[in-house]
Design goal:
Helices cover 35% and strands 21% of the residues. The chain is elongated and about 55 Å long. The protein is α/β, with parallel strands linked by helices and 234 residues long. The protein has 8 helices and 10 strands. Strand 8 (189-194) and strand 9 form a beta hairpin. The model has no long low-confidence stretch (mean pLDDT 95).
Length: 234
């Protein structure tokens, strides 16, 4: 089935793409990317790489923290003219700690249809392999880069009973684990999901102090997600 076009405002597709393994993309996502008038990506380099991987040739435009305010009205105007846009992030499900929320709001304001193409999500993948409770969880996203600010943020979460999920950049794994152990407690159970969906995938689970020691002895520089138990949940 092809994407429907008529004289009404267009459609914004929010398209999930693989977080690691390239086979994880859906057939529907591929169809939308092939037929969209424009693919909106976070970074042009990553967007081109993804389209090339699946032999797709479509116009690309970047939308990120540096140009979001300027570019969003331009993209909304294209939707208002009836165009079909596909929004992707560098990996996984867009809008989780990624730019694009303003575009969704503008799309609704011009009467465009907004729909999700579900698929890979590092957040959910990490949760399901963590073995921690999923009935209630809190997506914290990226902690502050500065140590004191990060520790203040963790202190505010210390008594939260919900399972906590953290993203961060590869080079900050050890600083994050040190602060988790110091603020939440060395006995707080955590799971670090590394290289999710890839052949090198690994999940390191246990008390925060023990997990910290593991990564001090076995440095890891890849992508990771940290899942921490809520207070009093185990």
């Amino acid at each position: 089935m092809s994407i429907r076009r008529d004289s009404s405002p267009g459609t914004l597709y929010i398209v999930a793409t693989p977080i690691g393994h390239p086979d994880d993309i859906s057939l529907r996502a591929l169809r939308v990317l092939r037929e969209a008038d424009l693919v909106v990506c976070e970074e042009l380099k990553e967007g081109r790489r993804l389209l090339h991987r699946y032999d797709i040739s479509r116009p690309l435009v970047d939308l990120n923290e540096h140009n979001e305010a300027q570019r969003t009205p331009e993209l909304a105007a294209r939707l208002a003219r009836g165009e079909v846009l596909a929004l992707i992030s560098d990996a996984g499900t867009p809008l989780l700690a990624d730019p694009g929320r303003a575009l969704v709001e503008h799309a609704y304001n011009v009467g465009a249809r907004v729909t999700a193409i579900p698929g890979p999500s590092a957040l959910l993948a990490a949760l399901v392999v963590s073995g921690l409770p999923m009935d209630r969880f809190r997506f914290v996203g990226y902690l502050p880069a500065k140590r004191e600010e990060r520790r203040r943020a963790l202190k505010a979460l210390r008594d939260d009973p919900d399972t906590l999920v953290f993203f961060d950049t590869p080079y900050r794994l050890l600083p994050v684990l040190k602060d988790l152990a110091a603020i939440l407690g060395r006995s707080r159970f955590i799971a670090v999901a590394c290289d999710l969906t890839m052949p090198t995938e690994a999940v390191v689970r246990g008390p925060a102090g023990k997990v910290l020691k593991h990564f001090q002895e076995h440095p890891f520089k890849g992508e990771f997600v940290v899942v921490a138990e809520g207070k009093g949940r185990r």
